[in-house]
Amino acid sequence: MAFEFFKRKSKNMSDSMSIEQNYTFHFNESGILYPYSVQPKTDLDFYWQALEQEGYADLIEQQYVLLWDEFYQLFEDEDHQAMFSMMQVPKMADLRPMIRSENALSDSDFKISLAGWCDIQGVQNRNNPSRQGAILTIDQQNYLLPKTTWELVEKIREFSRLSDKTKQDNEQYCGKIRRLAKKSNASMDEFLNKTVVLAPDKLQLNMRRQSLFNDAVIEIQPIFEEAPNTWLDTFDQFNQVQDHYSIALSDGGIAHVIIDDKVKNVLTEIKKMPKRRVVGERAERFLKNPYAQLGEDATSVIKPESFEQSKQDADIFAYDLTIQSQYDEQGFFQSAKLVLDACTEKEVPSISLDLQHADHASRLIENYIKACKSNTHDFYWAGYEIILSPKTQQQLEQLRGDLQAFLQKKQDELAQEILDIDAYGDRVTGIGLPPAGSVASDASGEVWIPVSRQMELFEKIKPNITYSVLEDVQAAIFQAESSASNQVELPYLEQPVSIADAKDIEYRVDEYLRQKQEQKIDSEPTEPSIEKTKPSILLIKNNIDDEEYITQRSELLAFDFEHSKLELPKSFRSQEFGLKQHQEIGIAWLQNLFNFAPINVNGCLLADDMGLGKTIQLLCFIGNYLEKTADKKPILIVAPVSLLENWQAEVNKFFTAQYGKILSLYGDHLKTRRLDFIPTKLEEQGIKNLLQDNWHGEADIVLTTYETLRDLQFSLGREQWSIMICDEAQKIKTPNALVTQAAKAMNADFKIACTGTPVENSLKDLWCLFDFIQPGLLGSLKEFGQAYKRPIEDDADEIALQKLRDLIEPQTLRRMKSDVAALPKKYDDIQDCKQIPISALQQRLYDKTIAEYENVLEGARGKAMLGALQTMRTICAHPLQLDPKQPKSESPKVEWLLQTLANIKIKQEKVIIFTEFREIQSFLQRLIQEHFGLNIFTVNGETASSSKKGTTRQKLIDTFQQSNGFNAIIMSPVAVGFGVNVQKANHVIHYTRCWNPAKEDQATDRAYRIGQEKEVYVYYPSIHAQHFETFEIKLDRLLDSKRKLATDMLRPVSEINIAGLAEGVLSALSENEYTPDWSIISRKLREEYNWTCQNCQIQLENNLKRFLHVHHINGQKTDNKSANLKVLCIRCHSEQPEHQHLCNHQDYFDFMQLQ
Fold first, then answer.
1. Digit-coded pLDDT (tens) for 110-136
2. How many whole angstroms separate alpha carbon 167 and alpha carbon 881?
3. Domain final residue, candidates 313, 344, 365
4. Is 451 in contact with 435 (CB distance < 8 Å)?
5. Residue 431: phi, psi to the nearest 5?
6. pLDDT value at position 31?
7. Interior CA angle at 151 toward 148 and 157, to 5°?
């Protein structure tokens, strides 16, 4: 180090030397002392001035003080040796300290003291040496203590000053003192010699390098000075870092290792590493900068030079790279050999690594490009650090060019393969945009809007797209489906569109938002791909107007279970689980039909009622095929995302590990199998989603969603599938839907449509399913409409119905729970819950709604009618939403629910509460938490179906089912349409009703299905008024009537027409159906009183019932005349004190009691 005093040029060096020769060395307990001079004259003056300026010495009371720890730091520097000689620093002492201990280590008065000094032979010096700071004085002669000796005596002094010492204090100081004593070769008593207490404050990270799949694996071995041989084994035995370790030694003793806070923090970070190992990129980052991974305390615990030495000891070096590429006959890259030469003076053999193919080499180039972008001078490959020298960069750029040429060749080949129509099934006619030509229609007159319009419609919405727009689109679709409307009014569109178009637009809006979000995350400024090129599809012979594609079906498909051989797979856990007879019949039926495929039959419809175990039948059928077939083809299972977890769970539950290998192809599972780069030629033709070569590997079964099937139809359509299953096949019931066309384009030997509701709204659903499993059997859609749909649906033609039934019978299996399943009894006609008396608040809101509707002009009543119906629905189900300040007693359905739940709790049973309205769900959640202390779950359509993070739908239901005793769960009937089993609940409450009885029954069947062990109680709570039919009562009556008709699979039961329901409810109320003899009462009262509102001055002489209203103060009717009744204006709801005496009028009171 250079100081100012070295720059001074003395005119009289001899004078200064004489002064310095007269200098006397001064010191005290703190350090070395030197007098301050205002006018420095000697070299020592200037030296001390420089020490003070540089921050080493302090100026205190007109003298410099160099603390002992600072002195030792400078004393080891050769640049300062001459000056210290000038300062007359004493020579080094050759005596060793003698240290002794008192009392037990666990005692609060445990002590370690300096007992004296001895020579190298251990003979104690009897001249009474004295010590001050780092100076030992013997016979008036000063000696400097070695640094480690000074540190030892200072640590002893520090320990002696501690008060209220704990055992942990004693152990830590004992360890530190013992370590310093060994370094300074001190003499220790027997206890200190034999009691091994180690308190490391520094760690050394030894390393061991391995390779795993071309990734570096670094094992980290944290050790310290005097660490016992078994230290790492002991460290690994605990899941968390301990404050104290007791380790047995080979000589029979015990070493106590005391871990201080900083060392513990570093060891804790190492403990987080699996088996003290870091792999791949994390290993690379660790070797570059271990402190970033080990926490801020690592800088004081691990010395950089120690870490670098550990790398050298582990043969972890940086390397120079040489690339030796191999080319094929056409001159394209084939493979390469990498030769790595270590950058070290040690003799280390070269390392040879192989790049076996272009993909492997591409990953090397990716690492190289990342290093270039981050301006680093090295990068890692297979765990080796490669230096980016000019020579290495030149070779890597050459390899990069070779790969680009190879990739272009592969892209051209891929484009040729994808565009080769012969690679797809024989129903596929070409590749292109969805048909934009003629508008196909069936004989019933239903119009199929050309799919090409969907992009045009989307373009109109696109400038305004936000997440709220997506919610509006979804809400509009839901409203249309709820009202059985074929038209949907979407934001920013002038004309309504069909439900099919609306759903496609919903997908496009959702995809647009998803891509924009991904671009934000990746900071990529590119536009969403949906805007660039219209997506192409596999064009098929669609059989809409004409029979374009026909498959043959044998006449010999008869099935006789008694003479059929049932074969169950060996992997089925038959010792633990048994099958029902109807399930065995179903499996044998599937096996019988499959024996005729693909020549004499192409598929079937498995239409068993919900809850009969369609999934287990199909899994047994699949398992037997996989075990019996030598040259087997893969199996494709397509299902709504909510069901895919259930398929996997059923396999895990009912089958051994010998069952076929399953690949999940949806959600996050897609990321590693998608083709990252689509050839330009394919992108230009609208083909944007492809899978990598050999994407399914050795998988026997592929699970995917309908959306993935639609998006990846070019990859899935080129596979040869043995069996294709569409679960909840109503998803492909719309002929012109993209997902339906994608399903029909698949190349499978045997196709199975699986659904408990093959016909939901129209026989057209059935045609579309059979056009999937056996194209041509039912003719074209147009022919089917003429021969079957119109005669059966419009004219109830029994002959046509029977003919259709006979035609599909060989390929259709339909069993109902009532026919085959020995289930507990179901009570679904509980009448008490349909007689919940209307409250005064509900009556008042009802009257207000009717009055507002009647004031709407006749021409505008259509929209107002639906609004009034929705309001009446809310009045019945949740009146407090309209008037939150009212007490719960004004919502009688809530009172009924709480009492019903209390009764269920007494039985310690479980209940499902169905309602699709979120505001009601939240209200009920809070209510149940307040009254029963239950924090219950809500399962909606938006609840994640499959996710690595968060709680999925199935996990929520599993948690509910596994809970003990009484519990409740709230579900949307929309969310439980597919594959949700909740057999632990035996009470089902439909708090609000669906428009379609089939959807309600489907929801109920989540509990009433195979596996249910208790009697099931189904409640339809409804608000009832004595003299008129409320919305809920009328809806209940209509649903019951439709439910009674829904006994034949081929007789579709449509949803309730909401507009018709609204008209029926409102017209009934407008016609005064709930006011018997009112004209007589009104006339008598009108003769006696003036009917003018004191607030709004409205006269309503002709209709007293629209003027007066009764408010039940206590929420209960009285049996006699009461002042608790108030008279309100029906228009402005103000009290009418001048008319209060009406409450005592016998005729009026009698009428109000009728209400």
1. 999 999 999 988 899 888 899 999 999
2. 65
3. 313
4. yes
5. -130, 135
6. 92
7. 145
- The reply to whether omega before 598 is within 30° of 0 (cis) is yes
| Three-class DSSP category at 1041 | helix
Say if residues 87 and 31 touch (Cβ distance below 8 Å): no
Q: Is the pLDDT of residue 322 over 90?
A: yes
Query: Does 944 share its domain with 900?
Result: yes
Q: Which range of residues forms the domain containing residue 1085? A: 1078-1154
Q: Dihedrals φ, ψ of 340, to 5°?
A: -110, 125
Q: How far apart are alpha carbons 601 and 558 in whole angstroms?
A: 12
Asked which of 1039, 1070, 1101 is the last residue of a domain, the reply is 1070
Q: How far is CA 143 from CA 93, 146, 747, in A?
A: 5, 9, 96
Q: What is the mean pLDDT of the chain?
A: 82
DSSP string for residues in 269-285 = HHHTSGGGEEEHHHHHH
pLDDT of residue 1057: 62
3-class DSSP string for 180-216: HHHHCCCEECHHHHHCEEECCCCCEEEEEEEEECCEE
Q: Which two tokens stand for residue 1020?
A: 């339809």
Segment 755-784 shows an average pLDDT of 92
Claim to verify: residue 704 and residue 595 sit in the same structural domain: yes
Cα distance between residue 342 and residue 248, in whole Å: 41
Token pair, residue 278, equals 């870091």
Structure tokens at 772: 């999937």
Confidence of residue 1062 (pLDDT cuts 50, 70, 90): low
Does residue 398 share a domain with residue 443?
no
Q: How many residues does the chain have?
A: 1155
Helix (H) or strand (E) holding 378: strand 378-381
Measuring CA to CA, which residue among 655, 560, 555, 666 is closest to residue 615?
655
C-alpha 828/C-alpha 1033 separation (Å) is 16
- On whether both 370 and 489 belong to a single domain, the answer is no
Q: Are residues 659 and 782 in the same domain?
A: yes
Q: Which residues partner with 705 through β-bridges?
A: none
Q: What are phi and psi of 971, to 5 degrees?
A: -135, 150
Total structural domains within the chain? 8
Closest CA to 878 of 895, 901, 866: 895
Q: What is the pLDDT of residues 856-876, one digit of tens each?
A: 766 566 667 777 888 888 999
Half-sphere exposure of 1142 (CA within 13 A, CB side): 26
The answer to whether residue 302 sits within a structural domain is: yes
Q: How far is the C-alpha of 928 from the C-alpha of 915, rounded, in Å?
A: 15
**Token pair for 262:** 């900083």
Packed helices 641-654 and 953-962: angle between N→C axes, nearest 10 degrees? 50
Return the pLDDT at 1104.
40
How many CB atoms within 10 Å of residue 1153? 14
Distance (Å, rounded) from C-alpha 978 to C-alpha 640? 7
Tell me the three state secondary structure of residue 62.
coil
The answer to whether residues 35 and 156 belong to one domain is no
Q: Supply the pTM of this predicted model.
A: 0.55
Give yes or no for a cis peptide into 40 (omega within 30° of 0).
no
- Residues 821 and 802: their CA atoms lie apart, in Å, by 26
Mean local confidence (pLDDT), 795-824: 87
The reply to whether 91 falls in a domain is no
600 plus 731 within the same structural domain = yes
Query: Looking at residues 487-501, what average pLDDT do you find?
Result: 80
Q: What pLDDT shows up at residue 287?
A: 86
Whether residue 913 lies inside any domain: the answer is: yes
- For residue 684, is it within any domain? yes
- Mean pLDDT value of segment 647-672: 93
Higher per-residue pLDDT: 1125 or 819: 819
Distance CA 768, CA 744 (A): 10
Report how far apart, in Å, the C-alpha atoms of 137 and of each of 95, 187, 339, 991 are. Answer: 11, 19, 65, 96
> Each residue of 607-652: pLDDT tens digit?
998 888 999 999 999 999 999 999 999 999 999 887 898 899 999 9
Asked if residue 349 and residue 264 are part of one domain, the reply reads no
User: Residue 850's pLDDT is what?
Assistant: 81
- For the stretch 386-403, pLDDT in tens is 999 999 999 999 999 999
